[in-house]
Amino acid sequence: MAKTHEVLTKPAPGTTVPVHTYDDEQKAKLQALREYAETLVLPEGEAYRENELRWLHRPDTAPRYMRAAKWDLEDGKKRIAGTLQWRREFKPDLIPPEEVRIESVTGKIVINGFDNDGRPIIYMRPGLENTERSPRQLRHLVWCLERAKDLMPPGQESVAIVVDYRSCSLRTSPSISVARQTLVILQQHYVETLGRALVVNLPFILNFFYKGIAPFLDPVTRDKMRFNPDLTELIPKEQLDASLGGTFEYEFEPESYWNQIVSACGIAPDGTRIENRGEIRETVKHGDSSVAMLEEAQEKNTHEFDATLETVEVAA
Length: 316
What we know:
The protein is α/β, with parallel strands linked by helices. The protein has 12 helices and 7 strands. Strands 2-3-4-5-6 form a 5-stranded mixed beta sheet. A two-stranded parallel sheet has the order 1-7.
């Protein structure tokens, strides 16, 4: 296969996305959690209110929190209240692309392709670290998580993370404190979002790193981690980076990659979303010429595959 700069933003044809089903008791708890959460949103007139409602009304939000709480409604309420407060302060859905773009130029975190279950793949390559440790690194990671969620096909609620430690050293490896911060965000505010964590090419010298974060891994996260698996058993070869055993000859080019992700996800320069063509025209009218590309991508960003998407029911 010839080398390409094209980012894969749809699963392979024929991909089957497992979906969760719920019994009547679980549905009642989901509704109760949604009603409770809506009492916590900001009042009318507050700028971030619509963002909170958008997040709460995502079809996966309440189910993820109830599954994480093992269907304990009171625990689910505590969890979702904590995340609402965190999102209000961090505003993960309003991070302007240019704020974190510098973190992407080496390709240390790349969203590209989907696994066998239609999970968006986030490749992490610590050996390509290009910036000093700072809060911006964490904001970049969160920005990438939000974009991966944007690219999820219908019914999919989780991502696959592939951590490739090739060429990584103690100097470029994230500090244990940064890793712990990352785990807190993943485990508390992106609950049930990690579907798989696949670690490859881990050098012996970095084993201590995983020993350092192991106490902070909850059992659910730990069970989703696999070390040096055969990636071709989990990811279609045509969607898997050729450097990791696939046939997808993707060649990273920073500007092309960034523009494609921003376009496919419909993100405006200020971090807001371009929901429809009217909003796109309004944004362009105010001088944001870079949004012209987003208008073209908006029609593609319907989360519908060219192939027929099958679904199978998985017991909750």
